[in-house]
Amino acid sequence: MSYGLYIGRNHTADGVAYLAGYGDEPSSHWLELRPRCRHEADARIPVGVTPQADLPGRMSEIPQVPETARHLRVSYSYYKGVPAPLTNGGLNEHGVAVRDIWSSSRAELVAMTPADQTGPNYSDLACLVLERARSARQGVEIIADLIARHGYADYGGNSHLIADAREAWVVIEFSGGQGLWVAERLGPDAIRASRPGYVGMVPVEDPARTDFLYPPHFVSFAQEQGWHRPGTPFDANAVYGDGKGRWAGVQWIEAEMAARAARPEKIGLADVFWAVRTERLTGDTAGYGQVVPLLGAVPDALRLIWHTPVGAVAAPFVPVFLGSAAVPEEYRQHRYLSDGEASRFLDSRHAENGRPQTLSAVPQGIESTRSASFAGKRLLNLLFQNHEAFLAEALALWQAIEARLAVEQARITRSAAALIEAGEPDLAAHLLTYFTDTELRRALDAMEQLAQALEVRTRYLFGFRTEPVPRAPAQLW
């Protein structure tokens, strides 16, 4: 279960489109920066799911492309038994951003899923788009081609929001092993939230339309199953999905953003932060926060993701440049909430005696640093226990930090652009790395300092709750 939000460029104050959201899987989440890589002509990569997945299948291999793109992504360690690490959001050097969002298929399709299904899983598709796509439209074509050639290993249905500076596409991949998918284009006037991902009416009576894409058997299969009557409107969500259309939370946030877009000042960066942060939508399930400005023709080093290491209600957004050399250790994978780590050690003695599975997957050097994810969860629980007293103060603090960072990010961008233009890309990379590292660690300091203050106030003003039912603001989902 995840949340995605696309804002077309005609609705924003800066004329830039945005893709934002979060993933709410309960396992660990971390930032990964993958470099551009060249691969051997016969290189292959593993994809799919194992017999242990919730919907079982078989792993397989597919050909790798000659070169994969540099990209920044958020990964996590567990969902429904699909092999880790998993990915559901990121940005590549070509300005293509992806969000992975669940989208339940109808029960009959789930029941049709072969027990030996093969092909890329939902995370594989997100990674492959980040590695290969040079436009949002090409991202759709990559998914369509992969499903047609290799199949699709699913867990009950899924979707992706793929966006670039010009447009976005919602892609729904349906369960059942039938090669069914549909994609809808979102233009510069669109405001679209996904939770779950959905596509409604599809103009199948006009196959020449270029704003909807689907495989040749998309309509005929539904009619063979008796799910659609020829000559009637084709509602993809009703025919192949959960049949619920736009969920209540989707309707609420889309209306809120449309109202902000109607103001003379339109939608600003702070409004997009709010849409990911609002306590009506964001709680403990949100593993992180992500806002991607979909920039046009800029040096790839200057592309960026605004990131929080926990649900954005408990952390400020910080810009992370694609041109940074590496992700700070505090924001990489730690053992906290990582699947399988409860039975492993940072000690090689057992591993050397024939039990390699007992050695932790997390390097000792990384584990010796602070964990931004752990710090964020501690703060979130302090905030939510007594949210009536503490939450407004924290939100005001994050907004103040972000307002300062927005000014600094613009200055750093101009400075790095000048260095690149002057033929000094290494100096630009140093500047971007220094800024990103410094501000991510400053944000972590602020989170820990606020948590320390709230712990003292909680202890003496309220005491710590020990009831089994946690407290939190009311949420729509």
UniProtKB/TrEMBL annotation:
<dbReference type="GO" id="GO:0016805">
    <property type="term" value="F:dipeptidase activity"/>
</dbReference>
<comment type="similarity">
    <text>Belongs to the peptidase C69 family.</text>
</comment>
<protein>
    <recommendedName>
        <fullName>Dipeptidase</fullName>
        <ecNumber>3.4.-.-</ecNumber>
    </recommendedName>
</protein>
<keyword id="KW-0378">Hydrolase</keyword>
<dbReference type="GO" id="GO:0006508">
    <property type="term" value="P:proteolysis"/>
</dbReference>
<dbReference type="Pfam" id="PF03577">
    <property type="entry name" value="Peptidase_C69"/>
</dbReference>
<keyword id="KW-0645">Protease</keyword>
<keyword id="KW-0224">Dipeptidase</keyword>
<dbReference type="InterPro" id="IPR005322">
    <property type="entry name" value="Peptidase_C69"/>
</dbReference>
<dbReference type="GO" id="GO:0070004">
    <property type="term" value="F:cysteine-type exopeptidase activity"/>
</dbReference>
